Structures are given as structure tokens and as C-alpha cells.
């Protein structure tokens, strides 16, 4: 996996986790849901990139 893309996807997942946790702490369901969505997006992109890498080898 390309290092830059991997770092980007991991950062997106981490950023989503922070949003989710913050949303839970302040009782903001919208922020919490946005955080979960961002985590899922980062995870999905990471999985897709791993699949691409597997097919290349």
C-alpha cells in the first residue's frame, strides 16, 4: 500500500474516532454520527487499497 494513502486513511479513521468521542461527551448525536461515518469511510478506503495491493502481487 502506498505510504501516503495509508497514512491518509488511518488519519481519517482517527479523526472520525475523535469526532465520535467528542460527540458522545457533549451529547451531540450529529457529531457522533459524522465521526462514525468518517471512521467507516477511512476503513473502507484502507480495505480497498489493500485489495488493490494484493492483486498487484
Description:
There is one protein chain. The chain is mainly α and 57 residues long. 91% of the residues lie in helices and 0% in strands. The protein has two helices and no strands. The chain has helices spanning 3-26, 29-56. The protein is elongated. It starts with a helix and ends with a helix.
The global form is elongated
Q: What's the number of helices? A: 2
Q: Give me the oligomer status.
A: single chain
Largest sheet: none
Q: DSSP strand (E) fraction? A: under 5%
Mean pLDDT: 91
Percent of residues in helices: over 70%
In short:
The chain is 91% helix and 0% strand. It is mostly helical and 57 residues long.
What is this structure's SSE topology?
Elements: H1 3-26, H2 29-56
Helix pairs in contact: 1-2
Please tag this protein with its features.
single chain, 57 residues, mainly alpha, elongated
